[in-house]
């Protein structure tokens, strides 16, 4: 079963949508389940000034994208590489074992983003 926090991020997604003039846009997918996550960010002075996401996928994938976009906003780029899938899972009060791929997907999207803006 999903945690109340995970369901909140799914039902009330934070920062959903696109950014028209984004500094960077990345797209990550999980070929095994078909989930797709796209992130848009605006970078100013070495920080993420704005982050948005879209997910085509399961409930946990949407929740992970929502949480990640909220987490990114205002953070220094140098801080981002330390975030792990386990920390994303923990931030949502856990994921069912069959859904851990959602946190991995968010982590992969973040790694792609870091590579693109570094």
Commentary on this structure:
It is a single chain. The chain has helices spanning 4-11, 59-72, 77-80, 85-91, 101-117, and strands at 24-29, 36-44, 47-56. With 118 residues, the protein is of the alpha+beta class. It has a single domain (4-117), classed as Sufe protein. Chain: A (Alpha-Beta Complex). Strand 2 and strand 3 form a beta hairpin. Helix 1 (4-11) crosses helix 2 (59-72).
Provide keyphrases for this structure:
single chain; 118 residues; Sufe protein. Chain: A; alpha+beta; 3-stranded antiparallel β-sheet
Count of helical segments? 5
How would you sum up the global shape?
globular
Order of strands across the biggest sheet?
1-2-3
Structural class: alpha+beta
Q: Describe the biggest sheet?
A: 3 strands, antiparallel
The top-level CATH class is: Alpha Beta
Uncertain segments of ≥5 residues (pLDDT<50)?
A: none
Strand content: 15-25%
Cα separation of the termini: 38 Å
CATH architecture: Alpha-Beta Complex
Overall mean pLDDT: 96
User: In sequence order, what are the helices and strands, one letter per element?
Assistant: HEEEHHHH
- Counting DSSP E segments of at least 2 residues, the number of strands comes to 3
Classify the fold: give the CATH topology.
Answer: Sufe protein. Chain: A
- Return the domain count: 1
Output the radius of gyration: 13 Å
Helix content: 40-55%
């Amino acid at each position: 079963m999903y945690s109340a926090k995970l369901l909140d991020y799914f039902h009330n997604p934070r920062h959903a949508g696109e950014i028209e003039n984004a500094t960077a846009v990345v797209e990550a997918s999980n070929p095994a389940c078909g989930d797709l996550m796209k992130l848009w960010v605006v970078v100013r002075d070495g920080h993420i000034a704005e982050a948005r996401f879209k997910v085509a996928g399961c409930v946990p994938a949407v929740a992970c994208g929502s949480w990640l976009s909220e987490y990114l906003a205002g953070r220094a780029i140098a801080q981002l590489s330390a975030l792990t899938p386990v920390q994303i899972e923990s931030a949502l009060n856990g994921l069912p074992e069959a859904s851990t791929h959602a946190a991995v997907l968010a982590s992969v999207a973040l790694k792609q983003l870091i590579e693109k803006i570094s």
